[in-house]
Amino acid sequence: MAADQMPGPNEWAAAMQKTQDDVMRQWTEMANAWSKAASGVLQVPAAPPPMPPGGGAEVAQKFMAQFEQYLGVSRSLWDLLGRTATVQEPEQRTRVFTEGLQALQQQFAGLWGATAFGAPLSGAALPFAQGGFGFPGMMPGASPGFGAMFGGGNPFGFAAPGATSAAPWLSMPALGPAREQQEAWQKLTQISGRVAQAQMKLSSQWNEIIALALRELGSKITPQLSSGAPPGSVKEVYELWVNSAESAYARIAHGAAFIQAQSELTNALSQLRIAQRELLEDFSRQFDLPTRAELNSIHQQLRELKAALHKSGGG
Amino acid sequence: MPATDKSVPPDALQEFSDLQRRISGSLSALQAAAGATFGCSEKDAVYHEDKLTLYRYRPLAASANLPPILIVYALVNRPYMMDLQPDRSLIRRLLEQGLDVYLIDWGYPDGADRYTDLNDYINGYIDRCLGVVLREHQLKSTTLLGVCQGGSFSLCYTALHPGRVRNLITMVTPVDFHTPDNLLAKWVRGLDIDALVSANGIVSGDLLNAAYVSLMPFRLLQQKYVNLLELGDDQAAMENFVRMEKWIFDSPDQAGEAFRQFARWFFQENRLMSGTLEIGGRRVDLKQITQPVLNIYGKQDHLVPPDASIPLGQLVGSSDYRALPLSVGHIGMYVSSRAQRELPQAIAEWLRR
């Protein structure tokens, strides 16, 4: 990795851009082909059809998302190594590398939940909150979203849900003909606050994971730099990063602080969902629409009937 | 990203150029692999109840004249992993040993199953499926093979109905849920299970999957897909990957009550280990298991670590207990070439002994 052999950042950026463009072009062509095939069979518009879980299309989509992250992580690490390699004096080289890692720590941690590192971070942060919580399109911990559901209005005429937890109406006793509804909204908003707090707590755990992972990575690469034999490929650097990250994750995820933070968030999200459903059921009752509670009652009765049938030898 | 004029070695550009070529090949191979099929051995449905189907596999070799095997799979994944493709099928290898194989496919529970509990699964469904097998073969007892969570169910069933089980085989089966290396169990212990079930009714399979991949998020959510590049245009390898991916994320939702009981009684309270578990009002006493027991576990299993399976030998009342550790992980137990080579033969020999 001699400094005088290195091309400039423009070449690097161009290579990255070309790779990403090329991959996106292929992906688009593939999606269009699927769309065309589906529209022929199903007589649907040309929008890409929903992808069956685990099928080639879904795998390709995941593959693309992870590849973009791979590029992002690898580029950051490799670029740091490249800058380090330009420093002749060994001590100064180690210092540049260590400082660079610290800068990356902020960058990686700052990307919490963002696209570039979204999957390993946000995806892992809420294992019990994925898929089963919130309304479609609603991020866990976000405002409950009833306003948006009801076309932006508030069906009960109270302060908007998701208002800040310091809002005076939250601590007021509910009064009057609509006191039940007001109380429900207050509860919902308080739980939303708890979700936000729990999310911050878990985020700080993730910051620790990233910090520890980069320290571990540094401890692996620094001796290589000192001995004049740095990692020879982008892939090698990436593998070192993944190993370091998993090792750091394992240490922290087994710890009491992480477990508590994750539990608090999951439990708060459960409570949020229960509160959301209570409001929704109340709204449904006002329009004489069937509710989950009614269905549950029927399921219970069916279960009892079935048990009685089995007991009498008829089932 | 700040960069100097001399920041990137030429090799890196070459590497990205190569990468671009490999991505192109991989995407084409992925596209072609979209039609990969799952499950390979011929079978007949012999019993239905609710969402459940009991299958009997058609023979592939002369009968070994051994009692039939009833496979009790876990609720949390689909059982076709046992018969994924011709060269990765434990069931097929068992059939080639001349064994008669039945399998319970639990199906996909939905909102109507929210009150189905462990008593329904263990004293209800398993018991009735076993009854079908015993009637068909005019036997009083036969071999039960429980896999993962299905292994825990099989232990409960055998302890409660010892007269109906001649041999018990447990595979990657957790018994002790409080071992230090069991990350999933540590996480579950802090959860408000009542709230979780109350909030969801039935518990989403996607939610469980998120938990599983979160055990090793950097590897399972990212590196796995980056490594796909190494497969290039190897069509067969790509199809294997797609099949595996399908299985991993094809997770049925969980009946709410059964999930609540399993999470609380097994994961949080470790009742199977402490001997305090009750199913359907009856205590599950593992000392009642006096029939021969073969306990198969993976030495590299991160979902059911070896320490979670090993204590079984001390808990059962059987004097004919054998532990069979294999150098594989959880999924490797179903599909690795080592397991394909060693496991079916070991099972057949153990049954013949």
Report what the structure shows:
The complex is a heterodimer of chains A (315) and B (353). Chain A contains 10 helices and no strands. Chain A is an all-alpha fold and 315 residues long. In chain B, 52% of the residues are buried. Chain B contains 15 helices and 10 strands. In chain B, helix 4 (149-160) links the parallel strand 5 (142-147) and strand 6. Chain B has helices at residues 10-32, 90-96, 118-137, 149-160, 183-189, 193-200, 205-213, 217-226, 235-249, 256-268, 271-274, 306-309, 312-315, 332-335, 337-352, and strands spanning 43-49, 52-57, 69-72, 101-105, 142-147, 165-171, 278-279, 282-283, 293-298, 321-326. With 353 residues, chain B is α/β, with parallel strands linked by helices. In chain B, helix 2 crosses helix 15 (337-352) and helix 5 crosses helix 10. In chain B, strands 1-2-4-3-5-6-9-10 form an 8-stranded mixed sheet, with helices on both faces. At the A-B interface, helix 1, helix 2, helix 4, helix 8 and helix 9 of A face helix 1, helix 5, helix 6, helix 7 and helix 8 of B.
**Rough outline of chain B:** globular
- What is the N-to-C succession of helices and strands of chain A? HHHHHHHHHH
Shape of chain A: elongated
Helical percent range of chain A? 55-70%
Low-confidence stretches of chain B: 1-8
Mean pLDDT of chain B: 92
How many helices of chain A in DSSP terms? 10
Instruction: Find the structural class of chain A using helix and strand composition.
Output: mainly alpha
What distance lies between the first and last C-alpha atoms of chain A, to the nearest angstrom?
75 Å
Number of helices of chain B: 15
Alpha-beta content class of chain B: alpha/beta
Largest sheet of chain B: 8 strands, mixed
**Distance N to C terminus of chain B:** 67 Å
Q: What's the overall average pLDDT of chain A, rounded?
A: 70
What percentage of the residues of chain A does DSSP assign to strands (E)?
under 5%
Q: Find the biggest chain interface.
A: A-B, 88 and 78 residues
Largest sheet of chain A: none
Oligomeric organization of the protein chains? heterodimer
Q: Which consecutive residue ranges of chain A, at least 5 long each, have pLDDT under 50?
A: 1-7, 37-52, 112-165
In which range does the helix fraction of chain B lie?
40-55%
